[in-house]
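Hi C.,

You asked whether I'd gotten around to modeling the 262-residue construct. I have! Everything is below, sequence then structure, no commentary in between.
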Amino acid sequence: MIALALVLFVCLALPDTQGHPPLQNRIIGGENAQLGEFPFVVALWSDMNNSPYIVCGGSIISAHFVLTAAHCVDDYNPKLGYYYIQAGIVNWEDKGVRYNVTKVIGHPNYDAEGDIALLKVAGPIKFTDNIRPVGLPKATDYLKGGEAVEAVGWGATNTDPATYPKILHKVVLTVVSYEECTKQISSAPSPYDQTVLNATMVCAGKPKGGVCYGDSGSGLVRGANLVGIVSFGVPCGIGYPDVYTRVSSLVPWVHKQIKANS
């Protein structure tokens, strides 16, 4: 068995090229998800130097493509190993179904235009009750402050001491408007108070809940659509909103990349 604590600390060590402090990513204040409840969710693994570890979460969007955060894969070096996804699970120790990643397509300017990456897998992914794609929003869709959304991930559920679950967790959050999110984060401890938001980001949270260590790249959903990707935030579930990539703002880029790489 691979040590999960090591897995998640490695993920946190990924460089933050967005110019923001790295997100301490976990599901706080949530509960266990059931098998098949979020059939699009995958665990993204790295086999660098023949030592597998979980890098981040991801979301199946078609038989050949998965979405995750660009900061999860921006140091990928195919000379050192490869990535693969693990689908059809809620317990990351279960075997599930494995598909190797054949291509990593990170946004070329994600520090300014969106923390998003497209992974092409050696599919087609076989869809079942426990493995299915999530819908994408329209480019014109916009989340409003006060709307209910749901985050999922395998990140830590406590920080003192750090506790990492084997079971996928979920938590219902509330969208925080751009203006309110900017206001709240500006009052956060340094260096988080220097965070600058843009139109490719959306905020969500609740007073004692959110994401933290290990949830990077995982999805934020509203109904049947993937509306956000875990990007960064103030650690951890202490009342400040977390920041997600706003998927609708980058849907044109996603469709363009799928067409170019199919």
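If it helps when you're writing up: The first strand starts at residue 31 and ends at 32.

Thanks,
B.
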